[in-house]
């Protein structure tokens, strides 16, 4: 029979390990400060954050992880550690679709960690403007939802914007009904963003029939209003309930349990290849027979996997369209370079929106 280790001894061992971890964390932080000084001395002070470098570190952590912690748990721990160390070098300003407590802010924290300074703005347009003017180094914008499709204001804004996509992050969307009430019978109105109302329509029709549903600018705004008014319910995420202190009456009221929103990180830097990347493209072509085939054929020829294609009116002429395309790989990969060279003679415009590491967490 295996001897049972006394609890006091186990706690002493944990205390010793905690002290060692703390020393190593601060040793890493000191090296981060040295990195900042080296970058400033070499004129790289604008490039403290490197999405490619951080992706490689997190992937390495997953590969080295022996358990019993899961790979994702280990990666999230190091995500926060890198975020705190980066803040010692130069805190990042990240624009998101506000107010505080939105899924966009949640996406910012998931990608950058909680040591960044998140800056709320009111529209997707303002996120792009904040990055273009360098008021913020980065922005987080929603680009597609698994049930509602693409976010057209984001796609439209990429047409003229000089910003680059330098990362992506996916957020599992869990909608919760929250209110200062004890049961559903006290709810007189439900507030939320239009997409959230649409994603919870079946639940609302079944459990709150006849209760008016009103659209507001964001789920967080709905939670803020619900916190101040009796009988007003909001549909929002847990982060909004925590920030605005609104009790959650019912968890997970979305009609589809796998509802996920993909966000992209926009900035003014290019990400180097990490061997596990995506490239986003904007392509315009004249309206003629075989035009779409002419776009797709070079990718098939060079064995390049296409993960998304969307069309949008170009607004330059009747029935002219722009195609937004995601492909696997980095724009510097040989096959992608060859495909884009061949494609350039078939279309009127190719704009590389960015090559960036695939989402890790």
From TrEMBL:
<dbReference type="InterPro" id="IPR036979">
    <property type="entry name" value="CM_dom_sf"/>
</dbReference>
<dbReference type="InterPro" id="IPR002912">
    <property type="entry name" value="ACT_dom"/>
</dbReference>
<keyword id="KW-0456">Lyase</keyword>
<feature type="site" description="Essential for prephenate dehydratase activity">
    <location>
        <position position="261"/>
    </location>
</feature>
<dbReference type="GO" id="GO:0005737">
    <property type="term" value="C:cytoplasm"/>
</dbReference>
<keyword id="KW-0963">Cytoplasm</keyword>
<dbReference type="InterPro" id="IPR008242">
    <property type="entry name" value="Chor_mutase/pphenate_deHydtase"/>
</dbReference>
<keyword id="KW-0028">Amino-acid biosynthesis</keyword>
<dbReference type="Pfam" id="PF01842">
    <property type="entry name" value="ACT"/>
</dbReference>
<dbReference type="InterPro" id="IPR036263">
    <property type="entry name" value="Chorismate_II_sf"/>
</dbReference>
<comment type="pathway">
    <text>Metabolic intermediate biosynthesis; prephenate biosynthesis; prephenate from chorismate: step 1/1.</text>
</comment>
<keyword id="KW-0584">Phenylalanine biosynthesis</keyword>
<keyword id="KW-0057">Aromatic amino acid biosynthesis</keyword>
<keyword id="KW-0413">Isomerase</keyword>
<dbReference type="Pfam" id="PF01817">
    <property type="entry name" value="CM_2"/>
</dbReference>
<feature type="domain" description="ACT">
    <location>
        <begin position="280"/>
        <end position="357"/>
    </location>
</feature>
<comment type="pathway">
    <text>Amino-acid biosynthesis; L-phenylalanine biosynthesis; phenylpyruvate from prephenate: step 1/1.</text>
</comment>
<feature type="domain" description="Prephenate dehydratase">
    <location>
        <begin position="93"/>
        <end position="268"/>
    </location>
</feature>
<dbReference type="InterPro" id="IPR001086">
    <property type="entry name" value="Preph_deHydtase"/>
</dbReference>
<dbReference type="GO" id="GO:0004664">
    <property type="term" value="F:prephenate dehydratase activity"/>
</dbReference>
<dbReference type="InterPro" id="IPR002701">
    <property type="entry name" value="CM_II_prokaryot"/>
</dbReference>
<dbReference type="GO" id="GO:0004106">
    <property type="term" value="F:chorismate mutase activity"/>
</dbReference>
<keyword id="KW-0511">Multifunctional enzyme</keyword>
<protein>
    <recommendedName>
        <fullName>Bifunctional chorismate mutase/prephenate dehydratase</fullName>
        <ecNumber>4.2.1.51</ecNumber>
        <ecNumber>5.4.99.5</ecNumber>
    </recommendedName>
</protein>
<dbReference type="InterPro" id="IPR045865">
    <property type="entry name" value="ACT-like_dom_sf"/>
</dbReference>
<comment type="function">
    <text>Catalyzes the Claisen rearrangement of chorismate to prephenate and the decarboxylation/dehydration of prephenate to phenylpyruvate.</text>
</comment>
<dbReference type="Pfam" id="PF00800">
    <property type="entry name" value="PDT"/>
</dbReference>
<dbReference type="GO" id="GO:0009094">
    <property type="term" value="P:L-phenylalanine biosynthetic process"/>
</dbReference>
<feature type="domain" description="Chorismate mutase">
    <location>
        <begin position="1"/>
        <end position="93"/>
    </location>
</feature>
<dbReference type="InterPro" id="IPR010957">
    <property type="entry name" value="G/b/e-P-prot_chorismate_mutase"/>
</dbReference>
<dbReference type="InterPro" id="IPR018528">
    <property type="entry name" value="Preph_deHydtase_CS"/>
</dbReference>
<dbReference type="GO" id="GO:0046417">
    <property type="term" value="P:chorismate metabolic process"/>
</dbReference>
């Amino acid at each position: 029979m295996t001897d049972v280790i006394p609890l006091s001894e186990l706690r002493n061992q944990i205390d010793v390990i905690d002290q060692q971890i703390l020393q190593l964390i601060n040793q890493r932080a000191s090296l981060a400060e040295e990195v900042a000084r080296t970058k400033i001395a070499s004129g790289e002070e604008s490039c403290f954050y490197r999405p490619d470098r951080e992706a490689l570190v997190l992937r390495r952590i997953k590969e080295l992880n022996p358990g019993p912690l899961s790979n994702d748990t280990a990666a999230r721990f190091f995500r926060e550690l890198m975020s705190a160390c980066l803040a010692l070098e130069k805190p990042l300003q990240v624009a998101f679709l506000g107010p505080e407590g939105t899924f966009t802010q949640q996406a910012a924290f998931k990608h950058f960690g909680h040591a960044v300074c998140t800056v709320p703005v009111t529209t997707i347009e303002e996120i792009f403007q904040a990055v273009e003017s360098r008021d913020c180094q980065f922005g987080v914008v929603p680009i597609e939802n698994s049930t509602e499709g693409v976010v057209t204001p984001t796609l439209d804004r990429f047409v003229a914007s000089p910003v680059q996509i330098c990362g992506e992050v996916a957020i599992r969307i869990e909608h919760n009904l929250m209110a200062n009430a004890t049961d559903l019978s006290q709810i007189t109105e439900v507030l939320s963003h239009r997409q959230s109302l649409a994603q919870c329509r079946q639940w609302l029709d079944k459990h709150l029939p006849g209760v008016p549903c009103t659209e507001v600018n964001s789920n967080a705004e709905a939670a803020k209003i619900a916190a101040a008014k009796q009988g007003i319910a909001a549909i929002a995420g847990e982060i909004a309930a925590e920030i605005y202190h609104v009790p959650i009456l019912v968890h997970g009221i979305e009609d589809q349990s796998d509802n996920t929103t993909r966000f992209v990180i926009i900035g003014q830097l290019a990400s180097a290849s990490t061997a596990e990347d995506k490239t986003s493209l904007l392509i315009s072509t004249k309206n003629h027979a075989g035009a779409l085939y002419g776009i797709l054929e070079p990718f098939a020829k060079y064995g390049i996997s296409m993960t998304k294609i969307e069309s949008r009116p170009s607004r330059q002429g009747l029935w002219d369209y722009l195609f937004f395309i995601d492909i696997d790989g980095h724009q510097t990969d040989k096959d992608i370079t060859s495909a884009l060279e061949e494609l350039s003679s078939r279309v009127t415009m190719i704009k590389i929106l960015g090559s960036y590491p695939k989402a890790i967490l």
